[in-house]
Amino acid sequence: MAGRAQLAAMAPHVDLAIGVSQFNSGELVAAGYANVHTVPLFIEPRRFSEDKAERTAAARLRRRSATLIAVSRVMPHKRFEDVLALHREVLRLRSDARLLIVGGYQPGGAYFRLLSGTAKQIPNVFFLGRLSHAQLVAAYRSASVFVSMSEHEGFGLPLLEAMAAELPVLAFAAAAVPETLGGAGIAFDEKRFAFLAELVDELNESAVLRRAVLRGERRRLRELSSDVSTERMAEALAATAAKRARKPRSSPHSPIGPTGSQPANCRTAARRAPPASSATWSSPCATGSTPSTTCTTCPAPTDAIRPSTPMA
Question: pTM of this prediction?
Fold first, then answer.
């Protein structure tokens, strides 16, 4: 809540606000931002090709069994308990099925302790923690289906990573997920685990279904390309520059004084005020901020190019 309050407080001082999805842009508008544009994230598919996988990790993880993979920070809103519930149902159909969970977690945290306690009662669950990029590619490439049960995503970059790694995507249709999928992958709006387990089994068994899903995902990756994001960013900057050019300049009879100099108290206020022109980028944050919270500590993700405008 504090992050959202800070976001709203900055709105009057920002000329251009950018959301990485229409969902995030809507949150910026609701927070009071006037000039909001959407510039989607993208990845470079070649960085998830099989030759980019770490060989040692690939050899350790590769199995012929059906393997679910979930990639995200282990947080309550990601609903990993639902991923475990799905895996339990998949095991009823395939006793050798595995579940790989990739992402940072707090070993002593209450949520992780709850998950690990549940996982001990279910065979073949592996918490891999944080991985290097090459190890992550190996994990993706060793899996057969990517699954997301998250109930809040401002974009959902792992959805695209899984597509680039040639994995069928099975994702709960919450927040920005349907927008990011853009008709690719398989989105569902009811967590009926037994039914979803049968779908996972079908994706492993039916080459026809699998090819159709992967074909749609390749199309979506082309739609979310660097060229598209670059064009959207250029349009946002050009529109903002045009608006600034139309703004009237201060009158010589401005209240700041006949000579144009500011009184001391005005100069002090000006020094304390945020910059008159800045850009807000609304996106998932590695520090755990909400998707609409600006962050000054997070570098751009390795696989997502963000604009070179200053962050608020």
Answer: 0.80
